Structures are given as structure tokens and as C-alpha cells.
Structure to design on (524 residues):
């Protein structure tokens, strides 16, 4: 059947045949996705009218309560999302990263808002700033809700977490949200919306299954656009007149060639050597490597290349590829056959040119599969590549968005810094070493190119959340190729959705503006 959209408080089905979405494991059609014939202008108007009004009636703590209720509703019915995620190739572990990660993110935001935001609809940032000698003229800054909406355009790999990480700060800021999920996993996002819709104020959330033609033409300076996906699509959106002419706020989280660095001290037998190999395999296999934070470039001291390659190969040999839920399976399928074709093409670019790189583990065209047909399903072997010629451009430019990572040697910190920078901006990086001086030099040299850096060693490993896991309390984003934006970061994300205004006047009137009893309604 055709996947319906949730617009103006009801579920509505688009016209036409739509785009078929296949089960990643069996190849059977799960649904069809189309927004043809849907009135997106009416959806935007409904968000501005009904959604803004409903959220505007709530203080920050009340919005936090609604967000918590939505998260708890998902918690009660998360098995439904696990089951649907399996059809997208996700194992139970993969689904937990998305579903439980999204629920946890929403709960963290609800808690941060209860503790850190006022019982009000505006935020006062500072005390009165004297602007005159006599004390009769001052100024201060406040944050208020724009008279707009939040449009989120999401990637296929995290249909639940990707939606909730954007919804949470927008909801707390008082902005109604329109969700545009990626087509391959739109049916998972739609089920999540179906679960939470009744827990939220009317108009707070809508979902468009399919394209959004003309919707950006309706957005402007009061609106917020949050995007997750490819750098190429981010560039097209950033060039839209909604952003360039009408100044809609735009935040992008794009793909990046994230790196992990092994320190020279982490030789075989040291804990950090095993931590590095384990982390690399984890990032290659969780969600079949379809993570924007996965390790694509693994920088290793030249003298340790063979040892690291052998250790990672041995671990990859224990990975079992197959249908989610089948006995022994530890890695599922890619989201679809088209995605598998894309990864194969990227691997060909990474290895096809003379001396660009070689495959040291796996075969892009052959894989043993448990519980499914390797060709009907979008299955792919984990692929470990090796590029000894670090001057080749391919490993620093081409991303294979799947279970693929490339080992690359370095000879010293200056060369390492140059290699890191060639990624042109990354979401996440990591340094695995117990040498404090080495770690300090690498982090200080790499920080300008990263949104987040993890230091992993024997002391922190027990509690570390790992290279590829963004935390809602910390910013998620990165410079350059990674999109130049920031998501999450605790209450920073809420503030990013609000309008900062400097108010000038006498101290008494400034105090009256920001402290008037909310029950009078005069603040709104």
C-alpha cells in the first residue's frame, strides 16, 4: 500500500504509483511513497496557525513534559519500530542505536529543559547592562520563539533518532515541525509519528512521505531548516532562495571522511591496540557501516600497518552477515540494492586507480549470508582497504557509505595533521593512545577540522560511548565537508531555534517585560 502522510492532524495518502520501497532482506515491496496531490501549502499554514498557537500556550517545562510523554510512548511500543527496522536491514543492535538512541535523546532534552529553562516562554540571557551614566537607560538580551516552523529533512540511516534529535529542540523552542523522512526508511519514521502524534499539542508535528516540491518557497526568515544527508544535497539546499534571499536558518549535517588515529605507543599487547581494532570493526559493522560518524580513514603508524591489518582481518572473519534475527547474525543488510550499488561503485573508485588502494579483507561482489538470499537482499561483505600511498586523492575524497574503511600509514605528527586536514572537515574523529603528549598534539592540531573528538584509552574505555555515538549533551556537526552546522549540544540546540533580541529602555520597564506574570498572557 501507499504510505500516508500526517498532515493537518490526519493521515492522507498521496496520488499516483509512487516510489516503491523494498525489504532490504527479501527484496519484497514494503510500501510505496508519494506526496503527489497533497496540499503542502496548507500543511505549512496549519503549522504556523495551529502549531504555533498550541506550543505558544505552553511554558518551557510544559513543552518538556509533552516531549517526555512522546518519548515514553515510543518506549512502550518500540518493538514495533524494531520489527520495521529489520525490514530495512537492521539487526536488533542496529535498531537499538536508532530507536533507543532517539528515545534517550528526547528524554535527555526533556530533563535539560526542566532543569535549565525558566517557567516562561522566553529566556533572559543576562542582567541589565548599563548604557548611561545616570542609570536610567540599559539593555539586555532575550530569546523568543520565531513566528515560523521547523522543517527537518532526514537521512535514511536513522529514521527515528534523526527525527527526534531535531524535533526535541524545536518543540522546546515552541516551533512546530514538518518531518520529511528519507524515502527508503520513511515507513519507520511514519510509525514513530503515529505513536507520538497524540501526545503532542495539535500542529506540533506533521510528516510528508515523499517529495516536498514548492515547500521551500514558503519558508523565510522566521523558519528553521535542519538537514542530514549528503554534502551535495546540503549544497543545493544551502543555495535555495529560502536561505540565500529570505534568510531561513539552515543547519546541515553532511557526510564526512571521519578518521581514527592509532598512537605509536599502542603496539600489539597494549590495551590501546585492541581498543583501536575493536572500534574499527564496530564502526564498520554497526548498521552495516551506514553511519555518518563511521571511521572511513584509519591512520596507523607505518611500522604497525601489518599488525593492525592482521588484527582487524581476524576480527572481521568472525562477523556473520545475514537476515536480522537469524541465528548468529552480527551484521545485517544495507538499506537497499541501490545503496549497495553505490557502495560498490565507491569501492571501485577507491581501489580501481593504480596504487590508490587494495582490498585486504572481503569481496564487494561476494558474501556468505545466513538466513537470506545474498543477491535478493542488499547484503555486502565488510571491506577493509589499505592505501599505502597516502598522497593519492581517492581515500581523502571518496566515501563508501557502507561497511568499508581504509587503513593508511603515517610517519609523524606533522604528516598526520596534513592527512587529517585532507578530509576537509569531519563530524567525528578519535585518537587511541595512552601517550598524553601525543594525544594533546593530535587533538590540538585536529580540532579545527572536527565537530567532535574522542580520546580512547585504557582508563576511559569502560565508560566510553565510542567513536561513532553522538551524545545529546554535546554538539554534533562539523566544519567544511561535514556541513558547517551544529546539532544537539544540550540547550545550545534550543537556543539555535530562538530569536535573540537586544531590548533597550529603563531598568523598570526592562524588568516588567521579562518578569510579567505568565498567566496574564501579556508576554505572548
Amino acid at each position: 500500500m501507499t504510505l500516508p502522510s500526517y498532515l493537518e492532524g490526519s493521515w492522507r495518502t498521496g496520488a499516483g504509483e509512487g516510489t516503491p520501497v523494498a525489504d532490504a532482506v527479501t527484496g519484497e515491496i514494503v510500501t510505496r511513497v508519494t506526496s503527489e496531490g497533497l496540499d503542502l501549502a496548507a500543511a505549512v499554514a496549519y503549522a504556523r496557525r495551529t502549531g504555533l498557537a498550541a506550543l505558544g500556550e505552553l511554558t518551557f517545562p510544559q513543552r518538556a513534559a509533552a516531549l517526555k510523554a512522546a518519548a515514553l510512548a515510543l518506549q512502550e511500543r518500540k518493538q514495533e519500530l524494531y520489527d520495521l527496522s529489520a525490514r530495512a536491514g537492521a539487526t536488533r543492535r542496529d535498531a537499538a542505536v536508532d530507536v533507543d538512541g532517539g528515545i534517550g535523546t528526547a528524554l535527555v532534552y526533556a530533563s535539560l529543559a526542566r532543569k535549565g529553562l525558566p517557567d516562561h516562554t522566553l529566556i533572559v540571557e543576562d542582567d541589565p547592562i548599563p548604557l548611561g551614566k545616570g542609570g536610567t537607560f540599559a539593555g539586555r538580551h532575550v530569546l523568543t520563539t520565531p513566528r515560523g516552523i521547523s522543517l527537518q529533512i532526514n537521512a535514511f540511516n536513522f529514521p527515528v533518532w534523526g527525527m527526534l534529535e531535531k524535533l526535541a529542540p524545536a518543540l522546546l523552542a515552541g516551533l512546530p515541525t514538518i518531518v520529511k523522512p528519507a524515502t527508503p526508511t520513511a515507513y519507520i519514521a511514519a510509525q514513530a509519528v503515529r505513536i507520538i502524534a497524540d501526545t503532542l499539542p495539535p500542529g506540533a508535528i506533521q510528516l510528508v512521505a515523499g517529495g516536498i516540491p514548492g515547500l521551500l518557497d514558503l519558508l523565510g526568515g522566521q523558519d528553521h531548516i535542519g538537514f542530514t544527508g549528503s554534502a551535495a544535497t546540503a549544497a543545493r539546499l544551502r543555495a535555495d532562495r529560502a536561505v540565500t534571499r529570505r534568510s531561513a536558518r539552515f543547519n546541515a549535517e553532511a557526510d564526512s571522511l571521519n578518521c581514527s588515529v592509532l598512537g605509536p605507543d599502542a603496539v600489539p599487547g597494549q590495551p590501546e591496540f585492541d581498543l583501536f581494532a575493536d572500534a574499527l570493526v564496530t564502526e564498520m559493522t554497526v548498521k552495516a557501516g551506514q553511519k555518518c560518524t563511521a571511521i572511513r580513514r584509519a591512520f596507523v603508524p607505518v611500522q604497525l600497518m601489518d599488525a593492525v591489518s592482521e588484527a582487524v582481518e581476524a576480527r572481521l572473519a568472525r562477523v556473520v552477515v545475514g537476515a536480522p534475527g537469524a541465528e548468529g547474525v552480527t551484521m545485517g543488510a544495507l538499506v537497499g540494492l541501490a545503496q549497495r550499488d553505490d557502495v560498490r561503485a565507491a569501492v571501485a573508485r577507491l581501489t580501481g586507480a593504480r596504487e590508490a588502494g587494495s582490498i585486504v579483507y572481503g569481496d564487494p561482489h561476494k558474501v556468505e549470508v545466513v538466513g537470506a538470499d545474498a543477491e535478493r537482499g542488499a547484503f555486502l561483505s565488510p571491506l577493509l582497504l589499505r592505501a599505502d600511498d597516502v598522497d593519492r586523492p581517492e581515500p581523502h575524497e571518496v566515501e563508501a557509505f557502507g561497511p568499508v574503511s581504509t587503513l593508511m600509514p603515517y610517519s609523524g605528527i606533522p604528516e598526520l595533521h596534513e592527512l587529517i586536514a585532507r578530509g576537509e572537515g569531519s563530524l567525528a574523529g578519535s585518537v587511541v593512545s595512552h601517550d598524553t603528549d601525543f594525544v594533546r598534539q593530535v587533538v590540538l592540531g585536529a580540532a579545527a577540522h572536527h565537530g567532535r573528538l574522542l580520546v580512547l584509552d585504557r582508563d576511559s574505555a569502560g565508560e566510553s560511548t565510542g567513536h561513532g555515538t553522538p551524545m545529546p549533551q554535546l554538539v554534533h556537526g562539523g566544519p567544511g565537508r561535514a556541513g558547517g552546522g551544529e546539532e544537539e549540544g544540550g540547550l545550545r540546540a534550543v537556543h539555535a531555534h530562538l530569536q535573540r533580541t537586544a531590548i533597550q529602555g529603563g531598568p523598570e520597564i526592562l524588568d516588567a517585560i521579562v518578569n510579567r506574570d505568565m498567566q496574564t498572557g501579556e508576554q505572548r
About this structure: The chain has a mean pLDDT of 94.
